[in-house]
Design a protein that fits this description.
Length: 76
């Protein structure tokens, strides 16, 4: 993980987007929300890769839109 990915203002929106996308995907797949161990396992196995993918994509977007800000945040 890069230092900017550890910042709360970067990690929190990524986490909420990943959780929302995971819930949407599970609803589209018609997986019932039973909140059992099986459901939590499926949710986790879907949410973690989505969070890492979104984090990577937002990091690339930040580098493309504001390279000076990204370099400054990495130096801190």
């Amino acid at each position: 993980m890069s230092p900017i990915e550890r910042k709360w203002w970067f990690a929190m929106p990524v986490m909420f987007l990943a959780m929302g996308a995971t819930l949407w995907l599970l609803d589209c797949a018609q997986v019932p929300r039973t909140f059992s161990l099986a459901w939590i396992t499926i949710f986790s196995l879907c949410c973690v890769p989505l969070q890492r993918s979104l984090s990577f994509l937002l990091w690339i977007l930040l580098l493309w839109l504001a390279p000076g800000l990204a370099v400054k945040k990495l130096a801190q």
